[in-house]
Every structure is written in C-alpha cells, then in structure tokens.
UniProtKB/TrEMBL annotation:
<dbReference type="InterPro" id="IPR052057">
    <property type="entry name" value="IS150/IS1296_orfA-like"/>
</dbReference>
<dbReference type="InterPro" id="IPR009057">
    <property type="entry name" value="Homeodomain-like_sf"/>
</dbReference>
<dbReference type="InterPro" id="IPR036388">
    <property type="entry name" value="WH-like_DNA-bd_sf"/>
</dbReference>
<protein>
    <submittedName>
        <fullName>Transposase</fullName>
    </submittedName>
</protein>
Length: 165
C-alpha cells in the first residue's frame, strides 16, 4: 500500500472540491490505486476539516462497540463519517477482531514494560520473621566459610608434613 503525504492528499481533495474532476479521473491522473482512497480523504476532510490520522489516537471499548453496532445497518464509509473514525478500514479491523476473538478483542491492550510479579511472601513477612531469615542465611554462609577454612587448614598441614619428610 502506497503512503501519500498530507500535502498531496490536500492537493487532490482541493482539486476534487473545485468540481472539475471526479474520483475515478483523479485516481487515474495521479496514479492512485483506488478511487476509494480519494473518497476516504474527501470524507475525512469534509467532516474534520483536516487530513491524516492523529497519532496514538485510541478509542474506548464502549465507543468501538457502539460504532460496530451502528455499522451493522450502515456502510463503513457512512459509519466512519458519523463517528469521525478515519480511515474506515479501522472499523473493518475492529469487526475482524470481534469475529475472531469476540468483543474482548476490542479491549485496549496494556503496552510498555511489564511490572515485576508481586511476591506475596516477601511483603507479608513480619519484622521478626525477616530478621530470623537473615540470621539463618548468615548461619548457612558462616558454616560454608568454616568448612572451606577447615579444608584449607587440612591442605596446609598436609603440605607441611610432605615438606618435613
């Protein structure tokens, strides 16, 4: 799908609105794949007074559901104009999500970095239990250190006995 600049779209829209040429002729003149593109641009311009989609625009679940219910009895183009949802392909993508996942597919997904999982054990520990866990961990570490020192001492003793012989 070719992407057209907003300046180009406005040029085509104004040429159409001047009344000299129709959608099909404009599509042919500017080598635009479909006259439907021009229809969408003109509809959006007539309704909103501007062209191009607002970035990061998101719609609520209830709004999407209301738009889809209206679109059952009306064309996507007409629905798009009524609810100011452009391009109308957005509505058809919502319909596809509903067909595939049900209305839950319309809910906005949380984006961004996921939070750390909640560790209930750590937050429910009392101060005494926390201190006990620290003491137990220190005791384990000291036992390991003691075992290493005993082994080192045994190796040193073994080496000194070898040197005496």
């Amino acid at each position: 799908m070719t992407k057209y600049s907003n300046e180009f779209k406005l040029k085509v829209i104004h040429e159409y609105l001047d009344g000299d040429i129709g959608f099909a002729a404009l599509a042919e003149k500017y080598n635009i794949a479909s006259k439907k593109n021009i229809t969408e641009w003109v509809n959006q311009y007539e309704v909103t007074g501007s062209i191009g989609r607002i970035k990061n625009e998101s719609y609520s679940f209830d709004f999407k559901k209301m738009v889809l219910e209206y679109s059952l009895n009306h064309s996507y183009s007409e629905t798009s104009k009524r609810f100011k949802v452009f391009p109308s392909a957005v509505i058809s993508s919502w319909r596809a999500k509903v067909d595939k996942f049900g209305y839950d597919g319309l809910k906005n997904k949380v984006r961004g970095k996921r939070t750390m999982p909640y560790d209930k054990r750590a937050s429910d520990m009392s101060y005494e239990a926390d201190q006990l866990a620290k003491v137990i961990e220190e005791n384990r570490r000291l036992r390991m250190e003691n075992a290493v020192l005993k082994k080192l001492n045994a190796l040193v003793m073994q080496r000194t006995e070898k040197n005496k012989k």
